[in-house]
Amino acid sequence: MAMDSGSLASPVSSRDAGTIPKFGTRLEIGLRRQSVEGPDVRSGEQGDAMTAPVIGVEPASAARIDAGSSEFEERLEAAPVVFEARDVSVSYFGVVAVGDVSLDVHQHGITALIGPSGCGKSTLLRSFNRMNDLILGARVDGTIRYHGQDMYAAAVDPVEVRRRIGMVFQRPNPFPKSIYDNVAFGPRIMGRRKGLDEAVEHALTRAALWDEVKAKLKQSAYALSGGQQQRLCIARCLAVEPDVILMDEPCSALDPIATARIEDLMSDLKREYTIVIVTHNMQQAARVSDMTAFLTTEVGDDGHRVGRLVEFDATDKIFTNPTDPRTEGYITGRFG
User: Fold this and answer.
1) Tens of pLDDT along 175-214?
2) Enclosing H/E stretch for 278
3) How are strands ordered across the β-sheet holding 110-114?
4) Phi, psi angles (nearest 5°) of residue 32
5) Can you tell me whether residue 92 is helix, strand or coil?
6) Separate counts of helices (H) and strands (E) for the chain
7) CA separation for the pair 37, 55 (Å, rounded)
8) In the chain, how long is the greatest CA-to-CA distance?
Protein backbone atom coordinates (compact mmCIF):
# COMPACT_ATOMS: atom_id res chain seq x y z
CA MET A 1 0.00 0.00 0.00
CA ALA A 2 1.19 3.52 -0.72
CA MET A 3 1.87 5.30 2.54
CA ASP A 4 1.24 8.93 3.35
CA SER A 5 4.26 10.85 4.60
CA GLY A 6 2.17 13.29 6.65
CA SER A 7 1.80 13.48 10.42
CA LEU A 8 -0.56 11.12 12.19
CA ALA A 9 -1.92 14.17 13.93
CA SER A 10 -3.03 15.73 10.67
CA PRO A 11 -6.81 15.69 10.23
CA VAL A 12 -8.36 13.83 7.34
CA SER A 13 -11.37 15.20 5.56
CA SER A 14 -13.07 11.97 4.50
CA ARG A 15 -13.28 8.29 5.35
CA ASP A 16 -11.12 7.42 2.36
CA ALA A 17 -8.41 10.02 2.88
CA GLY A 18 -6.56 8.82 5.98
CA THR A 19 -3.47 6.61 5.90
CA ILE A 20 -1.03 5.44 8.51
CA PRO A 21 2.40 6.91 7.64
CA LYS A 22 5.34 4.67 6.88
CA PHE A 23 8.37 4.28 9.13
CA GLY A 24 10.89 7.05 8.72
CA THR A 25 8.33 9.86 8.76
CA ARG A 26 8.32 12.41 11.56
CA LEU A 27 5.55 11.59 14.01
CA GLU A 28 4.11 14.57 15.84
CA ILE A 29 1.50 13.29 18.26
CA GLY A 30 1.02 15.75 21.07
CA LEU A 31 4.53 15.36 22.53
CA ARG A 32 7.86 15.40 20.73
CA ARG A 33 8.71 12.06 19.18
CA GLN A 34 11.71 10.67 17.41
CA SER A 35 11.64 9.68 13.76
CA VAL A 36 11.99 5.95 13.38
CA GLU A 37 13.12 3.63 10.65
CA GLY A 38 12.11 0.09 9.94
CA PRO A 39 11.19 -2.34 7.18
CA ASP A 40 7.68 -3.03 6.02
CA VAL A 41 6.08 -6.04 7.73
CA ARG A 42 3.01 -7.92 6.63
CA SER A 43 0.51 -10.00 8.56
CA GLY A 44 1.62 -13.52 9.31
CA GLU A 45 5.06 -12.25 10.26
CA GLN A 46 4.13 -11.11 13.75
CA GLY A 47 2.49 -12.45 16.89
CA ASP A 48 -0.75 -11.37 18.53
CA ALA A 49 0.67 -9.46 21.46
CA MET A 50 3.60 -7.61 19.91
CA THR A 51 2.27 -5.11 17.40
CA ALA A 52 3.39 -1.49 16.85
CA PRO A 53 6.40 0.51 15.70
CA VAL A 54 9.30 1.99 17.60
CA ILE A 55 8.23 5.44 18.80
CA GLY A 56 10.10 7.43 21.45
CA VAL A 57 7.85 9.32 23.85
CA GLU A 58 8.74 11.77 26.58
CA PRO A 59 7.23 10.64 29.90
CA ALA A 60 4.36 12.59 31.38
CA SER A 61 3.30 12.90 34.99
CA ALA A 62 1.18 10.02 36.22
CA ALA A 63 -0.12 11.80 39.31
CA ARG A 64 -3.79 11.15 40.05
CA ILE A 65 -5.99 14.25 40.28
CA ASP A 66 -9.48 14.34 41.75
CA ALA A 67 -12.18 14.14 39.12
CA GLY A 68 -14.27 17.27 38.89
CA SER A 69 -11.43 19.52 40.00
CA SER A 70 -10.44 22.36 37.71
CA GLU A 71 -6.94 20.87 37.34
CA PHE A 72 -8.40 17.54 36.23
CA GLU A 73 -10.59 19.23 33.63
CA GLU A 74 -7.68 21.34 32.38
CA ARG A 75 -5.39 18.32 32.03
CA LEU A 76 -8.10 16.31 30.31
CA GLU A 77 -8.73 19.07 27.81
CA ALA A 78 -5.00 19.56 27.23
CA ALA A 79 -4.25 15.86 26.68
CA PRO A 80 -4.30 14.94 22.99
CA VAL A 81 -7.10 12.62 21.89
CA VAL A 82 -5.69 9.25 20.82
CA PHE A 83 -8.96 7.55 19.85
CA GLU A 84 -12.12 9.35 18.79
CA ALA A 85 -14.96 6.85 18.44
CA ARG A 86 -18.25 8.04 17.00
CA ASP A 87 -21.39 5.90 16.61
CA VAL A 88 -19.33 2.71 16.54
CA SER A 89 -21.24 -0.54 16.09
CA VAL A 90 -19.80 -4.03 15.69
CA SER A 91 -21.84 -6.87 14.23
CA TYR A 92 -21.26 -10.53 13.47
CA PHE A 93 -22.98 -11.90 10.35
CA GLY A 94 -25.33 -8.93 10.42
CA VAL A 95 -26.28 -9.26 14.11
CA VAL A 96 -25.24 -6.23 16.16
CA ALA A 97 -23.17 -7.12 19.24
CA VAL A 98 -22.42 -3.60 20.47
CA GLY A 99 -23.96 -0.46 19.05
CA ASP A 100 -23.69 3.32 18.83
CA VAL A 101 -20.64 3.84 21.06
CA SER A 102 -19.10 7.32 21.13
CA LEU A 103 -16.16 8.23 23.37
CA ASP A 104 -12.69 9.81 23.37
CA VAL A 105 -9.55 8.17 24.75
CA HIS A 106 -6.88 10.65 25.84
CA GLN A 107 -3.12 10.25 25.77
CA HIS A 108 -1.14 8.98 28.76
CA GLY A 109 -4.17 7.82 30.70
CA ILE A 110 -5.81 4.51 31.55
CA THR A 111 -9.34 4.07 30.26
CA ALA A 112 -11.33 1.15 31.69
CA LEU A 113 -14.24 -0.58 29.96
CA ILE A 114 -16.56 -2.21 32.52
CA GLY A 115 -19.92 -3.92 32.37
CA PRO A 116 -21.63 -7.31 32.62
CA SER A 117 -20.59 -10.28 30.51
CA GLY A 118 -21.84 -10.10 26.95
CA CYS A 119 -22.11 -6.30 26.74
CA GLY A 120 -19.40 -6.02 24.08
CA LYS A 121 -16.41 -4.74 26.06
CA SER A 122 -13.84 -7.01 24.39
CA THR A 123 -15.51 -6.55 21.00
CA LEU A 124 -15.20 -2.79 21.35
CA LEU A 125 -11.58 -3.09 22.54
CA ARG A 126 -10.65 -5.16 19.49
CA SER A 127 -12.06 -2.47 17.22
CA PHE A 128 -9.35 -0.08 18.43
CA ASN A 129 -6.62 -2.00 16.60
CA ARG A 130 -8.73 -3.74 13.96
CA MET A 131 -8.41 -7.20 15.50
CA ASN A 132 -12.06 -7.73 14.59
CA ASP A 133 -10.92 -7.80 10.96
CA LEU A 134 -9.53 -11.27 11.70
CA ILE A 135 -12.91 -12.62 12.88
CA LEU A 136 -15.11 -14.19 10.22
CA GLY A 137 -18.34 -12.27 9.72
CA ALA A 138 -17.33 -9.25 11.82
CA ARG A 139 -18.16 -5.76 10.60
CA VAL A 140 -17.39 -2.39 12.19
CA ASP A 141 -19.58 0.62 11.37
CA GLY A 142 -19.21 4.21 12.49
CA THR A 143 -15.90 6.04 12.76
CA ILE A 144 -12.78 5.46 14.86
CA ARG A 145 -10.05 8.05 14.42
CA TYR A 146 -6.56 7.41 15.72
CA HIS A 147 -4.72 10.70 16.22
CA GLY A 148 -7.15 12.27 13.77
CA GLN A 149 -6.95 9.61 11.08
CA ASP A 150 -9.74 7.22 10.14
CA MET A 151 -8.43 3.77 11.07
CA TYR A 152 -10.97 2.04 8.83
CA ALA A 153 -10.32 4.06 5.68
CA ALA A 154 -9.85 1.90 2.61
CA ALA A 155 -6.21 2.94 2.18
CA VAL A 156 -5.15 2.06 5.73
CA ASP A 157 -3.18 -1.15 6.23
CA PRO A 158 -4.52 -2.88 9.38
CA VAL A 159 -1.10 -4.40 10.04
CA GLU A 160 0.34 -0.89 10.26
CA VAL A 161 -2.40 -0.06 12.76
CA ARG A 162 -1.58 -3.10 14.91
CA ARG A 163 2.10 -2.24 14.86
CA ARG A 164 1.27 0.98 16.67
CA ILE A 165 -1.45 -0.38 18.92
CA GLY A 166 -0.32 -3.46 20.86
CA MET A 167 -2.58 -5.91 22.67
CA VAL A 168 -2.23 -8.08 25.77
CA PHE A 169 -4.78 -10.86 26.05
CA GLN A 170 -6.82 -12.37 28.86
CA ARG A 171 -4.63 -15.42 29.29
CA PRO A 172 -0.84 -15.30 28.97
CA ASN A 173 0.18 -16.50 25.52
CA PRO A 174 3.98 -16.78 25.42
CA PHE A 175 5.48 -18.27 22.29
CA PRO A 176 7.05 -21.75 22.52
CA LYS A 177 10.46 -20.13 22.69
CA SER A 178 12.94 -19.00 25.30
CA ILE A 179 12.26 -15.96 27.47
CA TYR A 180 14.85 -14.04 25.45
CA ASP A 181 13.45 -15.04 22.07
CA ASN A 182 9.91 -14.12 23.14
CA VAL A 183 10.96 -10.53 23.81
CA ALA A 184 13.35 -10.31 20.86
CA PHE A 185 10.75 -11.63 18.43
CA GLY A 186 9.23 -8.26 17.60
CA PRO A 187 12.47 -6.31 17.07
CA ARG A 188 13.77 -9.13 14.87
CA ILE A 189 10.64 -9.07 12.72
CA MET A 190 11.13 -5.33 12.31
CA GLY A 191 14.63 -5.95 10.99
CA ARG A 192 16.68 -5.14 14.08
CA ARG A 193 19.87 -7.15 14.38
CA LYS A 194 22.06 -5.02 16.63
CA GLY A 195 21.37 -4.11 20.21
CA LEU A 196 18.94 -6.96 20.84
CA ASP A 197 20.41 -7.70 24.26
CA GLU A 198 19.81 -4.13 25.36
CA ALA A 199 16.31 -4.09 23.87
CA VAL A 200 15.37 -7.30 25.69
CA GLU A 201 16.75 -6.06 29.00
CA HIS A 202 14.99 -2.71 28.61
CA ALA A 203 11.61 -4.30 27.83
CA LEU A 204 11.87 -6.80 30.68
CA THR A 205 12.89 -4.03 33.07
CA ARG A 206 9.90 -1.91 32.09
CA ALA A 207 7.68 -4.95 32.59
CA ALA A 208 9.12 -5.40 36.11
CA LEU A 209 10.44 -8.84 35.20
CA TRP A 210 14.15 -8.42 34.55
CA ASP A 211 15.38 -9.13 38.07
CA GLU A 212 13.37 -12.36 38.17
CA VAL A 213 14.54 -13.80 34.83
CA LYS A 214 17.92 -12.27 34.01
CA ALA A 215 19.73 -15.46 35.03
CA LYS A 216 17.52 -17.75 32.95
CA LEU A 217 16.83 -15.93 29.69
CA LYS A 218 17.51 -19.06 27.64
CA GLN A 219 14.94 -21.14 29.54
CA SER A 220 11.51 -21.81 28.09
CA ALA A 221 8.90 -19.13 28.71
CA TYR A 222 6.56 -21.95 29.76
CA ALA A 223 8.68 -22.44 32.90
CA LEU A 224 7.47 -19.10 34.27
CA SER A 225 4.50 -18.70 36.58
CA GLY A 226 1.21 -17.35 35.22
CA GLY A 227 1.88 -13.85 36.50
CA GLN A 228 5.41 -13.88 35.11
CA GLN A 229 4.13 -15.12 31.74
CA GLN A 230 1.67 -12.24 31.57
CA ARG A 231 4.42 -9.73 32.35
CA LEU A 232 6.54 -11.44 29.68
CA CYS A 233 3.74 -10.87 27.18
CA ILE A 234 3.66 -7.22 28.23
CA ALA A 235 7.44 -7.04 27.76
CA ARG A 236 7.06 -8.62 24.31
CA CYS A 237 4.59 -5.88 23.44
CA LEU A 238 6.80 -3.13 24.87
CA ALA A 239 9.86 -4.36 22.95
CA VAL A 240 8.47 -2.81 19.77
CA GLU A 241 7.44 0.44 21.51
CA PRO A 242 3.71 0.76 20.82
CA ASP A 243 1.91 4.06 21.14
CA VAL A 244 -1.10 2.37 22.77
CA ILE A 245 -1.52 -0.84 24.79
CA LEU A 246 -4.88 -2.60 24.80
CA MET A 247 -5.43 -5.05 27.68
CA ASP A 248 -8.29 -7.55 27.62
CA GLU A 249 -8.82 -8.65 31.24
CA PRO A 250 -5.06 -9.12 31.76
CA CYS A 251 -5.43 -10.18 35.42
CA SER A 252 -8.46 -12.48 35.22
CA ALA A 253 -6.34 -15.64 35.40
CA LEU A 254 -3.90 -14.33 38.03
CA ASP A 255 -3.76 -14.51 41.82
CA PRO A 256 -4.05 -11.32 43.93
CA ILE A 257 -0.29 -10.88 44.31
CA ALA A 258 0.34 -11.19 40.56
CA THR A 259 -2.65 -8.91 39.91
CA ALA A 260 -1.14 -6.23 42.17
CA ARG A 261 2.14 -6.44 40.22
CA ILE A 262 0.31 -5.93 36.91
CA GLU A 263 -1.68 -3.00 38.32
CA ASP A 264 1.48 -1.31 39.61
CA LEU A 265 3.04 -1.89 36.21
CA MET A 266 0.09 -0.26 34.42
CA SER A 267 0.37 2.82 36.62
CA ASP A 268 4.04 3.12 35.68
CA LEU A 269 3.49 2.45 31.97
CA LYS A 270 0.92 5.20 31.49
CA ARG A 271 3.75 7.73 31.79
CA GLU A 272 4.84 6.59 28.32
CA TYR A 273 1.81 4.86 26.83
CA THR A 274 -1.93 5.18 26.51
CA ILE A 275 -3.73 2.16 27.98
CA VAL A 276 -7.26 0.86 27.43
CA ILE A 277 -8.27 -2.04 29.67
CA VAL A 278 -11.28 -4.33 29.85
CA THR A 279 -11.96 -5.59 33.37
CA HIS A 280 -14.71 -7.28 35.37
CA ASN A 281 -12.96 -6.27 38.58
CA MET A 282 -14.63 -3.11 39.87
CA GLN A 283 -11.92 -2.53 42.46
CA GLN A 284 -9.27 -2.79 39.77
CA ALA A 285 -11.01 -0.25 37.55
CA ALA A 286 -11.34 2.13 40.50
CA ARG A 287 -7.67 1.68 41.47
CA VAL A 288 -5.89 2.03 38.16
CA SER A 289 -8.04 3.92 35.63
CA ASP A 290 -8.47 7.62 35.00
CA MET A 291 -11.60 7.32 32.85
CA THR A 292 -14.25 4.61 32.91
CA ALA A 293 -16.84 3.58 30.34
CA PHE A 294 -19.79 1.53 31.59
CA LEU A 295 -21.53 -0.67 29.05
CA THR A 296 -24.58 -2.84 29.54
CA THR A 297 -26.95 -4.90 27.41
CA GLU A 298 -30.36 -3.96 26.13
CA VAL A 299 -32.90 -6.46 24.85
CA GLY A 300 -34.73 -5.47 21.69
CA ASP A 301 -38.23 -6.41 20.60
CA ASP A 302 -36.79 -9.41 18.79
CA GLY A 303 -35.19 -10.66 22.00
CA HIS A 304 -31.68 -9.95 20.76
CA ARG A 305 -29.21 -8.46 23.28
CA VAL A 306 -27.11 -5.49 22.18
CA GLY A 307 -24.29 -3.86 24.11
CA ARG A 308 -24.73 -0.12 24.72
CA LEU A 309 -22.54 2.56 26.27
CA VAL A 310 -24.43 3.90 29.30
CA GLU A 311 -21.96 6.35 30.80
CA PHE A 312 -18.41 7.54 30.21
CA ASP A 313 -16.73 9.85 32.70
CA ALA A 314 -13.84 10.28 35.11
CA THR A 315 -13.38 7.14 37.19
CA ASP A 316 -13.82 8.92 40.51
CA LYS A 317 -17.17 10.30 39.36
CA ILE A 318 -18.36 6.99 37.93
CA PHE A 319 -17.70 5.24 41.24
CA THR A 320 -18.90 7.95 43.62
CA ASN A 321 -21.52 10.00 41.80
CA PRO A 322 -22.67 8.33 38.56
CA THR A 323 -25.21 10.14 36.41
CA ASP A 324 -27.20 7.11 35.26
CA PRO A 325 -28.99 4.89 37.81
CA ARG A 326 -27.98 1.82 35.79
CA THR A 327 -24.33 2.67 36.43
CA GLU A 328 -24.98 2.99 40.15
CA GLY A 329 -26.87 -0.31 40.16
CA TYR A 330 -23.96 -2.12 38.53
CA ILE A 331 -21.27 -0.48 40.67
CA THR A 332 -23.13 -1.32 43.87
CA GLY A 333 -23.85 -4.88 42.78
CA ARG A 334 -27.62 -4.60 42.47
CA PHE A 335 -27.43 -6.07 38.97
CA GLY A 336 -24.88 -7.42 36.51
Assistant:
1) 999 999 999 999 998 888 899 999 999 999 999 999 999 9
2) strand 274-278
3) 149-150, 138-146, 81-92, 95-106, 305-314, 291-299, 110-114, 274-278, 244-248, 165-168
4) -70, 135
5) strand
6) 11, 10
7) 10
8) 60
The interaxial angle of helices 226-238 and 179-189, nearest 10 deg, is 20
CA dist., res. 20 & res. 151, Å (int): 8
103, 312 Cβ separation under 8 angstroms: yes
Q: Which domains does the chain have, with CATH numbers?
A: 70-331 (3.40.50.300)
Q: What is the DSSP letter of 134?
A: G
Amino acid identity for residue 247 in this structure: M
**Cα angle for residues 222, 223, 224 (degrees, 5° grid):** 90
**Which residues are within 8 A (CB) of 85 and not within 5 positions of it... i.e. 6 or more apart?**
101, 102, 103, 104, 105, 127, 142, 143, 144, 145
What integer best gives the mean pLDDT of the chain?
80
pLDDT tens-digit map of 267-323: 999 999 999 999 999 999 999 999 999 999 998 777 889 999 999 999 999 999 999
Nearest to 208 by CA among 277, 260, 283, 280: 260
What is d(CA 6, CA 265) in angstroms, rounded to the nearest whole number? 33
Q: Is-contact 247 189, C-beta < 8 A?
A: no
Q: Which helix (H) or strand (E) holds 121?
A: helix 121-127
Closest CA to 136 of 174, 93, 175: 93
Which amino acid makes up residue 4?
D
CA distance 310 to 103: 11
The number of beta carbons lying within 10 Å of the beta carbon of residue 176 is 9
